[in-house]
Design a protein that fits this description.
This protein has helices at residues 11-20, 30-37; strands spanning 2-6, 22-27, 44-47, 60-79, 84-108, 117-123. By secondary structure, the protein is mostly beta strands. The two termini are 24 Å apart.
Length: 129
């Protein structure tokens, strides 16, 4: 099945999702943010701790259903005696419900500005290799 990928997710977030089954995460990294923009509530996505450049056949991760999605902008101000700097950062907040584990069968690497997509098979048991 084809899934949009969120890569480089911390091991702790994935462990929390395994334990709690429902988890809200914030996405700020540009490559994951662009992927989130391509999703809708109800979509099933693939999350992995592997970096985007290393996602390839055999990469394992979690598949999760998007329960809620919010995209917002945060304004950050940095000020000291010498300068005043203001920046706006877009972020996405996703509430995810874990569906299971999956292994990448084929990765469709992304062009700049596009979502990363993989074909992944659900793993119902772990094989000894």
């Amino acid at each position: 099945m084809r899934h949009i990928v969120l890569s480089g997710i911390s091991h702790q977030v994935l462990k929390d999702m395994e334990h709690d089954k429902i988890k809200t995460i914030e996405i700020r990294s540009p490559h994951n943010f662009l992927s989130v923009l391509e999703t809708d509530v109800g979509d099933v996505i693939f999350l992995t701790s592997t970096s985007l450049a290393d996602v390839r056949p055999g990469t394992t991760g979690i598949i999760a259903k998007i329960r809620e999605k919010q995209v917002s902008m945060h304004r950050m101000v940095h000020k000291n005696m010498e300068f005043y700097e203001e920046a706006e950062v877009q972020m996405a907040r996703l509430q995810l419900e874990m569906r299971g584990y999956a292994r990448v069968r084929r990765a469709e690497c992304c062009a700049l500005g596009e979502a990363t997509v993989v074909e992944a098979d659900e793993v119902r048991f772990f094989e000894g290799r």
